[in-house]
User: Fold Lipid-A-disaccharide synthase from Candidatus Symbiobacter mobilis CR.
Amino acid sequence: MAAQGFDAWWPHHRLSVHGFGWDTLRRIPGILSIRQRLAHRLFDAPPQVFVGIDAPDFNLHLEERLRQRGIRTVHYVCPSVWAWRAERLPRLQRYADLMLCVFPFEPAWLAERGIRASFVGHPLAAAIPATPDRAGARLRLGLPPESTVLAVLPGSRESEIRHLAPRFLACARIVQQAWGPVHVILPAVPQLEPQIRRIASQEPPVPHLTIVSGQSHAVLAACDVALVASGTATLEAALFQCPMVIAYAMSPLSWRIMQGKRLQPWVGLPNILSGEFVVPELLQEQATPQALAKAVLAWLDAHACSPDQITRLRQGFRALHATLLQDTPTLASQAIAEMLGA
Assistant:
C-alpha cells in the first residue's frame, strides 16, 4: 500500500504481536494508544466507509466506535471464529456491516449467524502461479538443480522465531544425518533476520544451510519438502503444491489458553480447508526435533518410493488453488459498493 502512495500513519510491525505472554503484554499500551489516536483522526474526518484489514483484536473495537458515529464498516478477512475463539462472534454481529471472506465456506456460515458476508477469493491464489517454476526458483536461489531441498519457515513473529527456529534447525541436522546431503534454505522476514542468524550461530552448525532475506515464494517453489510454522505460510506452501510438515510451539501459558478455545482438530490451513489431515501437524510438546525429522523424512521417502502419494497431494492442492482464485479486487469493490447502496 505504501508503494501505491498510501500514507502510513504508523508502521505495521507495531501491531505484530501474538500469544498471551510478556511480549504481548508489554506492547499493549502502545497498541491501545495507536487505536485511540486513529479513532479520533477518523472522527475528525469521517470516511464514507472504513475497511479494517485483518487484526481483529485491534479493528473490531475500532469498528464498534465508528459504527456508533454512523460510519459504515467493512472487515476484510473473517476472523477464524469457526476454528477458535468463538466468543468473538457477537462482536462481528454488532460491529461489521460487511465481512469480506477469503474462504468459500465462510459466507454461508456467517449468514446463518446474521452476518452479511461475501467470498472474494484469496489474494495469494492470484499471486502464486498455478504451475510453480521449480527449476527457475532453484536457479535464482543458487541451488543445484537435482539436489534435495528442505525449506524451513519458522514464522514471522519474534516469539515464533524464539520457540521454533532452534527446533527447526535441529530437525534439519537430523534429516541430513539420516538422508545424506540435503540443502536447507530458510527465508527470513527481513526485520527478524538478525535474530535468526544469531540463533543459527548459537546452535550446532547445519551443513548446506542458506538463510535468505525474504524470498519465501521462491523458496517454496524450489523445495522438495517444507517445515512450516502454522499460519498463512502453510497456505502458501499448499498453493506451491509443496509437501509439508506443520509445527507450532508457544509459551505454556499461551498454549493452555489457546487449547481451551480450539473448535477444530486441525490448526493448519491445508488441513482445515481439506477437512482432514492431508499433511502432518506437530504442536507444542509433540514438536520435538526428532518427531519433526521423522515426518520430514516420511515425505522424502514418499518422493523416492511412493510418488503416487505426492501426486495425490498436489492434485488436491491444485484443486484448492482453483477454488481460491477469484477476481478479488473486483469482487471486493462490488461487495462494498452494494453494501453502501443498500
Notes: Strands lie at 49-53, 72-76, 98-101, 117-119, 149-153, 183-188, 209-213, 225-229, 244-248, 281-283. Residues 51 and 74 are 5 Å apart (CA to CA).
